[in-house]
Structure formats: structure tokens, C-alpha cells
């Protein structure tokens, strides 16, 4: 019987500890909602030391999860969110405008990137970009000769089936590929267009080894796949781990995504949020972020400090002519999302 | 007799009510209305959608294959282990150990093993046997299902077989029965409760899984569980998800009813 | 020859059951970020990583707290219910026991979505509490099915004798009945705890964003990519399960075959 008493005591103790841990909030805390593993630890320490503000970070897996939670009333001072979700949050009046005058380092923001951010956030009122990137094709030069991949159409080639072709397990990304090839707007909700997209993808379907999101990166590194859709930001990571990998920015163009800082309407500590954004826009913070994540940063002062080899690498900082061909995802509305899901299921299930 | 003790059951009855009955009625309700709350049969009928129909048949098929393989593996094993005498505790221990490992981790283990450059292919190619490229196919899903649920087939069969009185078996031999006849006419009928129990415990989870098919199917294999999960958690419709769940339950109940026809003694309970 | 064939067959089945687990254990010492089959040297850093990542620690604490609370509450309610059920009429008893079976035979995913819809119906938003409620619901049958048979064996005689000797109903229960049914209560508690810790499907549906148990964290992490740290986690869980089973064998003097005969994954 003694054992059970001990167990019971342990339960009560842990429960009590949990409760007390949840309890104490103080003014010197910044509640940040972020993707997992998406902020360099050293920067957090540095910010805490300098300002005395503690960062309490919660993480989410997908933007959809984040949206649900914030819409459900969760309180954060600062959120890192993707473009189309920001658009949705603006539409639903969940964000407050950013006061750029209290963020002096916003002068470092890359204006060309800001112009693209204005697509989901007209007038650049709500979102301060943190990182950005595009979608491209990664392939293994042991199985596919270097330089032979130039177009999204190469993902339709029978000869790569053996090595393994992988597409994204996400309707917007995978449909975008077909839309690029067909020259259809990537934000279309026209059913005829979507049918053409599905028809084209169905031709490729027998060749696809798997649909994977973040996992595709590992499959490329471990050579379980020969060619896959990969975010440009993963390119450096992959190359570090497997020298035989090459990357291609497809000639048809692609889409640009942004992850931005946004301040929700119900933020308690707006000033801490602004201080943190300002801190992150310092050139050296930008460099640290780039070194850690490998994604391009929208920070001209930081970019000026990067190694030349990175700056000249078109896979990381694509040329303007490619960017001109890139679109930005819009939030399609609830009906649009449902329509896309219907076509996605049609494609996946048949 | 009015016994005050019966009120002790009331918290539990409340739990049955709020945790089982009302939720199941909620599924039924959601299955029968559209998103504006109007009565409709469209959710149930959506099983006729080619995507859903295919997912349902594939689930039934894979679950059936999995159950048959498990049975074919487990029954002979039960026969062999039946006579192992004093080692019973050890055998059960060995069977339970993998069962108590988190099933996601066990499934992930197969994914690691089956990768193009995974252990199995490394061994096979070094032996000159060529590559096995079954990851992301239904075969890999069946393998994962068999692996995850085999102990659930072995244990009940073994538990029943161990209890069979050996003098019965010996009597059958003394009367001139061949080993085959002994198994077919003596051991098999007496093991029936264990077999039925094993089949139920394998078939139902195999038919309704979504994690195993996702992990080993590379998001390519859409089972009915995957469809329901998609509808519920990834921007689909709860009503359609509920409708499909009801249809799925219907098929499970039919399968169970068929199974119980074989259970002549009526002893084979799941529990 | 026949004996050899038999040994071979048994050996192959156990190899099939254990090979993947041993692979995970082996890989957890490999100095490679992803669980690849190339050996890159021995390391213990993946074990350190498990313990240094806040999310894993949080998931572990959640798993244990939910497991212990769910099993504890289910045991209290379940024991009380068993005593109560013994006292009601046979007809009602049969109905209740039939209902008790539902969560055990039902497909997990259906139980999960039914609970989610039940919560939605009452306007309850998902929280730690909804996970706990769901876990108590699926743990209760295991308690009742372990306690009821013991109560039946004990019968009413001892209890009534104690009452006749002047003991109050509580005293009579705690000093006479409870010690008798203790093995059933303990088994019920332990089984509930294991079912709760092992559960994935029901937690996955009834959890709010941001709260993870080990199972749901493993699931969302494997979506991001397989990591050798997961193998390290498997090794730890394997050792833990081994330990728990051994302790339990010594404690209850029997093997843990119950789980198999009581269904569920």
C-alpha cells in the first residue's frame, strides 16, 4: 500500500507544480507564438539579458493550428505567421497595426520584399517580415546529371521514378506546380482550371513515390528519393548533409512565402513585442537568423554582412527575373479552401 | 430491497451517459444533418463518392489480409507453444513486451527498416537478393498492420490453447486420429473463443487505422480512417466525417455478425 | 527434424516481433541526425537531446499526469460503480455492463470523434480537461471488468458481518471489502494507466493545439522528419516497459496477460 501512497503524493505534487507554473504572469514577459525550432536560442538569451524581458515561447505545427488557437482566444503578444494566414487574420480583424515609429530598425527592411508582403497586407500595416523564401526542386546528382533539371515539368519524367519522385502533401504547394506549368493563376478557384490541374497531376501520380512535407528533406539527404519539391531555405541544410544534392529554381517561376511578425489585437505587452521586433531587425540578429535557419532574410543591413558566396548563390537569393515570375498565395476564403480540398481529395483518392 | 449502495454507481452512469451515449448520438445527429442543421442523407450517401468507396474497400481488404496473415501465423505458433509447460510466464512476457511499446514508434521502426537505403535493403543487396521497394505501397501498410496487431492475435489464442486439457488430445490420438485430425476436430473447435477474440482485436483496429497507413504509405494510401481524419481535422466537414463513420461502423458490425456465426458455442467474447 | 522446424518457426516469429525494436535501440547510439543505416560512430547525445528539449519533457509530464489522474479517477469511480452495480437489479446490471463494453469494442477513431462532437454539442472547447475526461471514459471499463469479478467472489457476507458487528458502511467497506478486492483494483489501475499512456488516437482528437502527450508529439515530429532522437526515446520506453513489466510480475506474482484478453490497442 505504501507504494500507492507514494504514487499518489507524486501525482499531487506534479499537479501542484504544473498549476503554479501556469499561474505566475508578469509584465516583463513576452508571450511569443512560433513554429517549432524557428528562432535561434542565442538571440533569445541576448534579448532577455539586454531588456530583462523574459520570452515565453509556445510552438505550433501549422498555421491552421495557430489560427484556430488564436481565434479561440489564446493570448499572445507576438506571433510568427505565414502570408496567407496573415491575410485571413487581417480580414477577421485579429491583428493590430504595427507602429513602425517605435521600431527604428525597420529602416533595414528590404523594400522589394515589403512590396511583396503588401500583397497579403496592403499598405504594409500589420506584418513585419522575418524570413522569406521560394519553392523549388532538389535532386540528387548521383541519379540525375547536374543541370538537367530546369522546369517543373521534369517532375513528370518517367526515368526518375526509380530513384523516387516526391511531391508536397499540401494542396496549395502541389497544385501550384501544375498551375505554373499550365500558366494558371495560383490563386484560382475556377473549377475548370482546377479540373485541368488535377488532370495534369493525375498523369504524374503513378510516378510519385510519396507526398511529404518537411520529411522530403530527409529523404533527399538519405537518398531515399532522387527528386523532390523543397523550400529554398532547406537547400543549405541539405547541401551540408549531402554534397551530391543540387537545387533548381524552375524556369516557370514559383511562389514566394513570408513568415512575418504580427501583433494580435489582444496582445498584453505591445511594447515588448515592438522591442523584440526591433531587436530582430538588427543586422547581427539577421545574420544569426540566416546562419541558423538558412532562409533569406528581408534585412538589407544584414545581407550586406553575409559572405559573398551566399549572396551570389542564386538558389538562396534568386535573381530578380525569377522573382518577377513568382506569385504569392492569397487566402481563398472558407469556400475556396473547401473547394480546393475537394479537388485535392479527388486527386489523392483516385 | 432498497440498498443505498446502488447510488455509488451514479457517477459512473453519468460517465456512461456523457462519455458514451450522448457522444455516439452526437455522431448520429451530425451524420444526419448538413452544416446548417437540416436533415439530409447526403453525408451517409457520400460513401458512394468514388474516393470514399475506394478507401472503404481498401480498408476492408487490407484489414482482412492482415487478419488472415495474423491468424495463419498465430495458430501454428499457439500449437507449438501450447506444450511448452512451465515457460508460460516467460512466453507471455515476451509477447507482451513489444505490445506495450508505443505503436507509433513500432510503426516508425518499419519505416526506417524499409527505406530505400534502410537496413533491409542494405542486407538484401549485400546478399545479392535485389531491392525490396515496398515502402509507400499497400504491402508496407499490411506489413505494419500485421506487425502491430500480431500479438493481439497470438495472446488470446495461446491463452485458450494452454487451457485445453491434454488428456483430451491424447484420447483422440489413442482413438487413432491423425495429428491433422486432432488439430482440426479437437484443438481448433476448443480454441475458437480465442480465435474469435483475436480476430476482433485485429480486424477492428486494422480496418480503422489512419496513422499506420499514413506513416508507411507515404500519404499515398487513403484508408477510410484517413478520410475521416481528413474530414475532421484538416478542413473537411464534420458532418461528412460523421456520416462516413456511421457507414464504417455498419461494415464493422456486419463483419462481426458474420464472425459470430462461426462462433458456435457463443463463448467468444471480445472481453 | 520436427523439433528443429518448430524452434525455427518460433524463432522467426520472435525475430519478426523484436527485430524492429532492436533496430531502433541500435540506431539510437548512431551519430547521425536521421536514423540512417550507415554507422557514423557511437554517441549518447540523442539521449541527452531528449532530456534537454522542453517539448519532450512537457509531453512526458503531460503523459504521466494524464495517465495517473485518469487511472486514479477511473479507479475511484469504477470501484464505487462496481459496488453500486452489485446492488442493483439483475436486469439493470446487464444493461450497464453492456454499455460498459461499448468503448472497448468500438473503433477508437469513432470513440474519439464521438467525444469531440459531444464536447462541441455542449460548447466545451478542447483543453487538458477534455483529454482527461476522454481518458477516464476509456479507462473505466478496465477498472470495472477487473473489480466486478473480485467483488462477486467476495460476496456480501463479509460486508454484512462487519455491519452486524457495528461497523459503519464506510468502515465496513474499507476494512473488509477493499482488502479482498485489492488485486482487482490494482490491476484495474495499472491497466488504465498503461492504456492512457499508450493512447494516441483519442488524445490526438480531443487535445487542444499546443498540448501534447508523448504519442501525439511523436506523431507530429515524425511528420517533420524521422530523427535519431526518436530512436533514443524508443530505447528509453522499451527499457521502461521492461522494468514496469518485471516489477509488476514481482508485485502481483503473475504476468500481465490481462491486456490481451481485454481488447484495445
Describe the structure.
The complex is a heterotrimer of chains A (350), B (271) and C (265). Chain A has 350 residues and is an alpha/beta fold. Chain A has helices at residues 2-23, 41-51, 63-71, 83-91, 111-117, 171-182, 191-204, 215-221, 234-241, 270-280, 283-293, 300-303, 308-311, 320-324, 333-349; strands at 29-35, 54-60, 78-82, 95-96, 128-140, 165-167, 208-211, 227-231, 245-248, 255-264, 327-328. In chain A, strands 1, 2, 3, 4, 5, 6, 7, 8, 9, 10 and 11 form an eleven-stranded mixed beta sheet that branches. In chain A, helix 6 packs across helix 7, helix 7 packs parallel to helix 15 and helix 8 runs parallel beside helix 9 (234-241). Chain A starts with a helix and ends with a helix. Residues 1-6 and 16-26 of chain A have low confidence and may be disordered. Chain B has 271 residues and is mostly helical. Chain B folds into two domains: 1-32; 43-262, MetI-like (MetI-like fold), CATH 1.10.3720.10. Chain B has twelve helices and no strands. In chain B, helix 1 (10-32) crosses helix 12, helix 7 (138-162) crosses helix 10 and helix 11 (224-233) runs antiparallel to helix 12 (238-262). In chain C, 79% of the residues lie in helices and 0% in strands. The two termini of chain C are 38 Å apart. Chains in contact: A-B, A-C, B-C.
Describe, in short, the structure shown:
The complex is a heterotrimer of chains A (350), B (271) and C (265). With 350 residues, chain A is α/β, with parallel strands linked by helices. Chain A has two domains: 27-132 and 257-324, D-Maltodextrin-Binding Protein, domain 2; 134-255, Periplasmic binding protein-like II (D-Maltodextrin-Binding Protein, domain 2), CATH 3.40.190.10.
Question: What level of helicity do the residues of chain C show?
Answer: over 70%
**Poorly predicted runs of 5 or more residues of chain B:** 265-271
CATH fold naming of the largest domain in chain B? MetI-like fold
Using DSSP, what is the number of strands of chain B?
Answer: 0
The structural domain count of chain B equals: 2
Task: Give the CATH topology of one domain in chain C.
Answer: MetI-like fold
Beta-strand fraction estimate of chain B: under 5%
List the chains of the largest interface with their residue counts: B-C, 91 and 91 residues
Q: How many angstroms separate the termini of chain C?
A: 38 Å
Radius of gyration of chain C equals 22 Å
Amino acid at each position: 500500500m505504501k507504494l500507492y501512497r507514494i504514487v499518489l503524493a507524486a501525482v499531487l505534487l506534479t499537479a501542484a507544480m504544473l498549476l503554479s507554473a501556469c499561474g505566475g504572469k508578469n509584465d516583463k514577459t513576452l508571450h511569443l507564438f512560433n513554429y517549432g525550432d524557428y528562432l535561434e536560442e542565442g538571440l533569445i538569451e541576448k534579448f532577455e539579458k539586454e531588456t530583462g524581458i523574459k520570452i515565453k515561447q509556445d510552438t505550433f505545427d501549422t498555421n491552421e493550428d495557430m489560427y484556430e488557437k488564436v481565434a479561440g482566444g489564446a493570448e499572445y503578444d507576438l506571433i510568427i505567421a505565414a502570408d496567407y494566414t496573415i491575410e485571413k487574420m487581417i480580414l477577421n480583424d485579429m491583428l493590430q497595426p504595427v507602429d513602425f515609429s517605435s521600431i527604428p530598425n525597420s529602416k533595414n527592411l528590404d523594400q522589394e520584399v515589403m512590396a511583396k508582403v503588401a500583397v497579403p497586407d496592403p499598405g504594409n500595416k500589420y506584418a513585419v517580415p522575418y524570413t522569406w523564401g521560394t519553392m523549388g526542386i532538389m535532386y540528387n546528382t548521383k541519379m540525375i546529371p547536374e543541370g538537367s533539371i530546369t522546369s517543373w515539368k521534369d517532375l513528370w519524367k518517367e526515368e526518375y521514378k526509380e530513384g523516387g519522385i516526391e511531391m508536397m502533401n499540401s494542396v496549395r504547394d502541389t497544385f501550384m506546380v501544375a498551375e505554373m506549368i499550365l500558366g494558371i493563376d495560383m490563386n484560382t478557384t475556377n473549377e475548370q482550371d482546377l479540373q485541368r490541374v488535377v488532370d495534369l497531376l493525375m498523369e504524374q501520380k503513378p510516378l510519385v513515390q510519396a507526398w511529404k512535407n518537411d520529411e522530403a528533406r530527409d529523404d533527399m539527404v538519405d537518398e531515399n528519393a532522387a527528386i523532390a519539391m523543397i523550400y529554398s531555405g532547406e537547400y543549405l541544410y541539405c547541401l551540408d548533409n549531402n554534397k551530391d544534392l543540387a537545387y533548381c529554381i524552375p524556369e516557370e517561376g514559383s511562389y514566394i512565402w513570408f513568415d512575418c511578425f504580427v501583433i494580435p489585437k489582444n496582445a498584453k505587452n505591445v511594447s515588448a513585442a515592438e522591442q523584440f521586433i526591433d531587436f530582430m531587425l538588427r543586422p547581427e540578429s539577421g545574420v544569426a537568423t540566416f546562419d541558423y535557419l538558412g532562409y533569406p532574410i528581408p534585412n538589407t543591413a544584414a545581407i550586406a554582412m553575409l559572405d559573398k558566396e551566399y549572396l551570389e548563390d542564386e538558389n538562396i537569393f534568386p535573381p530578380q527575373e525569377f522573382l518577377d515570375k513568382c506569385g504569392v498565395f492569397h487566402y481563398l476564403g472558407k469556400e475556396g479552401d473547401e473547394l480546393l480540398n475537394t479537388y485535392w481529395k479527388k486527386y489523392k483518392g483516385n | 430491497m432498497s440498498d443505498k449502495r446502488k447510488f455509488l454507481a451514479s457517477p459512473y452512469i453519468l460517465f456512461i451517459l456523457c462519455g458514451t451515449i450522448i457522444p455516439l448520438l452526437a455522431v448520429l445527429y451530425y451524420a444526419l444533418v448538413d452544416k446548417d442543421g437540416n436533415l439530409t442523407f447526403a453525408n451517409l450517401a457520400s460513401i458512394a463518392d468514388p474516393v470514399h468507396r475506394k478507401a472503404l474497400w481498401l480498408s476492408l481488404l487490407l484489414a482482412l489480409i492482415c487478419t488472415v496473415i495474423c491468424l495463419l501465423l498465430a495458430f501454428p505458433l499457439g500449437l507449438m507453444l501450447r506444450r511448452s509447460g512451465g515457460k508460460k510466464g516467460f512466453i507471455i512476457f515476451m509477447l507482451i513486451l513489444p505490445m506495450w511499446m508505443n505503436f507509433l514508434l513500432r510503426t516508425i521502426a518499419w519505416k526506417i527498416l524499409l527505406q530505400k537505403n534502410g537496413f533491409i535493403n542494405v542486407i538484401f543487396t549485400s546478399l545479392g537478393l535485389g531491392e525490396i521497394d515496398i515502402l509507400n505501397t499497400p504491402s508496407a501498410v499490411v506489413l505494419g498492420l500485421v506487425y502491430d496487431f500480431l500479438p493481439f492475435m497470438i495472446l488470446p489464442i495461446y491463452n485458450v490453447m494452454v487451457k485445453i486439457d491434454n488428456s483430451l488430445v491424447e484420447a483422440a490420438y489413442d482413438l487413432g486420429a491423425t495429428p491433422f485430425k486432432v488439430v482440426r476436430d479437437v484443438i481448433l473447435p476448443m480454441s475458437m473463443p480465442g480465435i474469435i477474440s483475436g480476430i476482433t482485436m485485429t480486424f477492428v483496429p486494422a480496418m480503422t487505422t489512419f496513422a499506420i497507413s499514413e506513416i508507411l504509405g507515404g500519404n499515398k494510401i487513403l484508408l477510410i480512417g484517413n478520410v475521416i481524419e481528413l474530414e475532421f481535422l484538416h478542413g473537411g466537414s464534420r458532418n461528412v466525417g460523421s456520416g462516413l463513420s456511421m457507414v464504417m461502423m455498419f461494415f464493422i458490425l456486419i463483419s462481426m455478425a458474420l464472425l459470430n456465426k462461426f462462433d458456435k458455442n457463443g463463448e467468444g467474447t471480445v472481453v | 527434424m520436427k523439433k528443429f522446424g518448430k524452434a525455427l518457426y518460433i524463432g522467426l516469429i520472435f525475430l519478426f516481433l523484436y527485430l524492429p525494436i532492436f533496430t531502433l535501440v541500435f540506431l539510437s547510439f548512431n551519430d547521425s541526425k536521421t536514423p540512417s543505416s550507415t554507422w557514423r560512430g557511437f554517441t549518447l547525445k540523442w539521449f541527452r537531446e531528449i532530456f534537454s528539449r522542453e517539448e519532450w519533457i512537457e509531453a512526458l509530464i503531460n503523459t504521466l499526469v494524464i495517465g495517473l489522474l485518469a487511472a486514479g479517477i477511473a479507479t475511484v469511480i469504477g470501484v464505487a460503480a462496481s459496488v453500486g452495480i452489485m446492488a442493483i437489479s439483475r436486469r439493470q446490471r446487464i444493461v450497464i455492463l453492456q454499455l460498459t463494453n461499448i468503448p472497448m469494442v468500438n473503433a477508437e477513431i469513432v470513440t474519439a470523434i464521438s467525444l469531440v462532437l459531444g464536447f462541441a454539442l455542449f460548447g466545451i472547447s478542447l483543453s487538458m480537461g477534455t483529454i482527461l475526461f476522454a481518458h477516464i471514459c476509456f479507462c473505466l471499463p478496465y477498472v470495472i471488468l477487473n473489480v466486478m469479478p473480485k467483488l462477486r467472489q467476495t460476496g456480501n457476507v463479509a460486508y454484512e458481518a462487519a455491519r452486524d458487528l457495528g461497523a459503519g458502511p464506510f468502515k465496513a467497506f474499507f476494512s473488509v471489502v477493499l482488502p479482498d478486492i485489492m488485486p482487482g483494483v490494482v490491476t484495474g489501475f495499472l491497466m488504465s494507466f498503461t492504456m492512457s499512456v499508450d493512447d494516441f488516437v483519442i488524445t490526438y482528437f480531443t487535445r487542444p493545439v499546443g498540448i501534447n502527450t508523448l504519442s501525439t508529439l511523436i506523431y507530429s515530429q515524425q511528420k517533420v522528419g524521422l530523427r535519431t532522437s526518436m530512436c533514443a526515446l524508443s530505447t528509453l520506453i522499451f527499457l521502461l516497459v521492461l522494468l514496469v513489466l518485471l516489477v509488476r510480475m514481482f508485485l502481483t506474482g503473475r504476468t500481465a496477460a490481462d491486456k490481451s484478453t481485454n481488447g484495445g490497442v
